[in-house]
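Lecture 7 notes: from sequence to structure.

We start with a single chain of 126 residues. Read the sequence below before looking at the structure.
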Amino acid sequence: MAGYKTERIGDILKRVLEKLGIQEGMEESKIFHIWNEEVGKEISRHAQPFYIKKGKLVVLVESSIYAQEYSFLKKEIQKKLNKRIGKEIIKEIVFRVGDIGQEIDQPAIEGRTRCCRSKRKSRKNT
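Now the structure, written as tokens:
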């Protein structure tokens, strides 16, 4: 057929998602899926990503001790996550004390990409 250009459906979808502003959110959401594997068991037991907005990843930690300890590792964690995603999504990591097992009902609120996970038992009770 003259005048028609064939394209892969993946290329078309990528353009549409970028045009709608959804592509960035999809890339950001990958962080929540790769976190445990990239940071390792020890860190993931005490820290979980909470949300990311405009390159700022907020990670909840169980205590201020972990916040301080992991703050020394944030550049290394940032490099690992960005490398795995294949793009510099994370520009800053902030650690905040919070309940890392809390349930998050809505995956996107106020333009933030948020993690959805089920409740976990508190480590204080085990």
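The two ends are 67 Å apart (CA to CA). Keep this in mind for problem set 3.
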